[in-house]
## 1
Amino acid sequence: MPHWLQLMAESLPSLLWAGLIFTIPLTLLSFGFGLILGLITAIARLFGPAPVAAIARFYVWVIRGTPLLVQLFVIFYGLPSAGILLDAFPAALIGFTLNIGAYSSEIIRAVISSVPKGQWEAAYSIGMSWRQAMSRTILPQAARVAVPPLSNTFISLVKDTSLAAAITVPELFQAAQRIVATTYEPLILYIEAALIYLVLSSILSQLQVRLERRFARYGGMLEANA
């Protein structure tokens, strides 16, 4: 067996384990919390009082206008100088959540705004409250439009979690860095890590296509029944 192939085979379990224990949980938790934060931010900007909307706009402006890596460094390395100490994983989770929240809020805000005003009027005409109209009428329609951009955001997040290695989270990419430090084979190990990210992204892309088709059929059924 060639040396490079043997090295990849030996390092594969360690890389996959790091991905399973750290990369995937970090991705799922960050995206889940980020979606909740994004929905709250989008609603605050669309329907909140002026001060709340201004705070939401400021948050989105700051996060979208600064690099994710800098945000992670501020949280993990900067906050301790203010007396706030965080372990690496919680710091990464907060950083990715804030980042996803800002970007997803723009997507959610756009898709909610794209729902025709007649849908609001129809919901109110049958006695729904604002909360009921939002949860039963507006959000289900907006979700169908939001699936492609939010799916792309999720796939990007999988790759962006490699930045957590910079704040010592032992995820997939840092596992590769640690093996490189002992084997002195950076090209082989980094290519292997890249291939794992490529496989994950490809699987998620296929799931995205299926999800989009399912929502398209659901949308067609709604239009047929309208």
Note: The chain has one domain: 3-225.
## 2
Amino acid sequence: MKKKVLGILLAATMVLGTTTAAMAANLTLGTGGTTGTYYAVGGVMATVLNPLLDDVDLTVTSTGASKANIQLIDEEDADLAIVQNDVMYYAYTGTDLFEAEGAYDTFASVAGLYDETIQIVTCDGSIESVADLKGKTVSVGDAGSGTEFNAKQILGVYDLSFDDIKVVNAGFGDSAESLKDGKIDAAFVVAGAPTTAVVDLATTKDVHLVQLDDEHIEKLQADYDFYTATTIPAGTYKGVDEDATTVSVRATLIASTEVSEDDVYNLLKAMFDNKDDLVAGHAKFEFLNLEDAVAGISVPFHPGAVKYFAEQGIEVE
């Protein structure tokens, strides 16, 4: 098994729920920062599922999110994790975010949980297409982030590159402030919609969502099959009165290849059998369904997931 030296500090660790059997496997679930969605979603999983599982006890840990989680599984410091499906593709293939360190083969897919939507936000009504970003000042997310790679890929299918825009690297909150102050023309935001930073921006400025057309979505999916076509409904943000077509990546549950088939199978079964209780804990679980759970995932599935989905009439590899 390949090993990596990690330069990461775990910000916090919490254990939720009570072990329901003396011999239960204690599985560590890597999430994200303590104020983020991954951490909250993981906490609900532990709270709801631990009392129901005889053989698995989830321990939720705060981490540096997707890339760090894959490294933690490789180091055997986590057994399960929530990651973006594009980031796990880069890890499995040793490309983009993982080009320098090479491919990882110590994890497998379990299930897609919910969409993280690529939202191209502007306060300039004249920017109607990605092509209109040429020559504009655009925030593409933090340097080295998954958002930055999403921006490069989407610009690329419109025959644009970072050389064709004035690149700003900033997080979602800072990007929204810069849009408000007129310092940038547009921003890539990759998060579930509605996104708090954009909701707040829309209270003071007219917000527009730049759409992707079907032709370019198909071209993007041909190059990167982790993208799924998505519609942001009218009314998601104040003043956005029409549906907006774009693409999403997916927040995805993965597992170490060392986790047993039975443990992953039982975890998945408990999740789908108790979806209502998960939804009561966090609204993101509204999007947990069998069809979407396997969409946009190009990394092989864990044997426990293969077994569970096969029982539901869904064949995955």
Note: The CA atoms of residues 53 and 267 lie 8 Å apart.
## 3
Amino acid sequence: MIQDLVVYAAYIAYAIAVLMGFGIILTWVERKQSAVMSDRIGANRAYIRLPFTQIKLVWWGLFHGMADGLKMLLKEDFKPKTYDWYAYMVAPWVAFTPVLLVFAVIPFGGVLIPSEIFSGFPAVAEWFAGKTYPMQIARLDAGLLIVFAFSGLTIIGAMLAGWSSSNKFSLLGALRAGSQMISYELILGLTVLGLVLIYGTLDLTVIVQQQSGTVLGFLPAWGIVLQPFAATLFLAAAIAENKRIPFDLPEAESELIAGYFTEYSAMKMGLFMFAEFIEIAIVAALFTTLFLGGYNLPWMTNEGFLLPGGHEILLSHGVVVLVQMVTFLAKVFLICSFQILIRWTLPRFRYDQVLKFAWKFMFPLALANLMVTAVAVWLLKGGA
């Protein structure tokens, strides 16, 4: 029992560190990547001076994230007169907390055997007594349903913020966020249903395990190979759900000042912004889990690599765990960078275009993809 608590406490600490780290790093990536795309130098003004010297550590603008955090913490916390004081105060946390909770059901590695990791420390290895732990905070049969349940809660924070701010721009931004969430959440569900039909489960760990094989003998059996169209729809809908350009109408600065968090300042505004960057990482983690094989590499097993032709490369358990964790983080970072690439490439839609794009374009395509997938699965199973 105590061993279980220690392992899962370590998992929770790791998850929080990863998400907070991505939130901080992505603020820098967005600045630097946009600068590279625009042929600019980019963020390079914040620095730390070494004591008693004239040496300034710029480090490609990495200190800008620290400067932003300090600014948010030290800035005056302006509190306007609101319709509902409690809703105004709790809204940032309602928007921020569910984003972290989604990661609880995402597997970030295979199976952990602590007694093998600490084989060089006999007392510690004996204490764990050969127990095994899936590298996932909450292993649930209905993991996908939990993802949709928690991700749908974030919109409540935006709605509370807009309604309680006593500001017409905030209220309009909240209404936009609500209608946009309803539209694109449906499309997310329809695209994922195709994978559920193929893999026959809602358990994210089983979905990842079933992507460890190959298709046609040489292609990885990843979701993006089996459902390329659904992968495209899923990523587009997820970006819209996160209210990022070209779908950032709930926050449109040129129309609504800052949208539903116009009346927020200091760290309360920081929570809304930080939640957006963490959600970029969550979207990338979900896309990696569902469509990119999760923590797996092609031909990788829990013992090493089983290559075509029967060739086997055996690895120690510690190395396998490390490779799986690094693989997962690398895939997540690449998808995060791709989302930022889209943000700095496409222009913003009008709001009527955002809803028409969902209901008149993506929704029919998602339905068509689901029907084609259902028929294909039925035929491959012999029509039984």
Note: The two ends are 45 Å apart (CA to CA).
## 4
Amino acid sequence: MKTIKFSPDKLLEKTQLIDNTEDLAKFFKQINKAAVIAVDVESAAFYKYYARINLIQIATDKHAAILDPQKITDFTPFKDFVAKSKAVWLVHGGEYDIAMLATDLSICIHNICDIKKAAELMGYDQLGLSALSERFLGFKLDKKLQRCDWSKRPLTDAMKRYAILDSICLVPIYKCIKDEIAKAGRTKWLKEESDKVAEKACNTQPQKPDPYAFLIKGSNRLGKRGLAILRSVWNFREDLAKKMDRAPFMILTNKDLLDIARQAPKSMAGLAAVTQVNEKFLKKHGAALQKAIKEGASASLTDLERPNGRYKPHEVPLTAWEGMLLASLKEIRVELANKLGISPGVLVSSQALYEIVREKPETLGELIQSEIVHEWQAREIAASMLPVLQQEPPASAKKKKRRTRRKEQGVGRRE
């Protein structure tokens, strides 16, 4: 295993904090010949209702900068640089970062290398950036500020150090891991995986509001009247969270909502007994919350369940025979993954196996064209799995009803 002697001190000392377009343009002139550039973003989404980029960190092997989107009003130099540069942009688990740059700033970075994908393809037990930094650089990243409120200004020295270190470390980690990927013959795999991350991130569409988002864990134990109250207080919390730009759970927790829906308190004292919110909140918003409870208590009991019923479109129950095929494919997946030294879920996910069983592709070409899996995955699994799919079900299996238990199918499980 290749390792590098590493110290971030020199780059930390000359890290720039950029808060205007003029300095932004100067920085990109400094790095215009860099072949490899690391990028990372920080967001205060844990604290805020509206997720926005609050910091952007960029590093090469010679330069490092923290960009402040709360102060920079024009990101044209960044956009122009991305459009012209042939550099490889390094990320770690980068779908969120690339998507935030695309949606917030209209900066679409396509030529990326996702270091987390590289670690998955090498079958490493630990995929976190701190673990990879220790593995290759002998340097442990401190993650104490991971959930810091990155919208706060001014930035402390500790915040600036934490923010830029991830990007600084990505460049030497890449130099190590790309050699291991090449030796394993998996460079094309990594390119395909990274391209898919960038494609998905740059095409991220705003999520449509889910009218059934109030059906949270535990709501299945409520009666219809309780569900009506839950929906009403859920909407109250959403409206207030938007107005205050605060994370909904910081206003009322899901447990608070369920307790309110279950007990339907009719007085301020009752509300105080049910919820954990402080007196100041109840003084300011208690009347509106009581109003929401009353509206739920008298609301229509229709439209409280998802119209599609129990199953989502991608979770239609399999027949008994299809369930047997799925079980066989899962066994094959484990064998193939063990030979490759990677996680079964990296080779092919359980959801993808379910879709393969539904589609039943007959050839490698059909499997690739289905886009259920990536091309490298299709080439690795086709020879072993396609013959299983081509088997004819026994006469008795054809007559059996479709299974209705998701547990039997293995659909939706985590790897």
Note: The chain has three domains: 9-202, 219-298, 313-409.
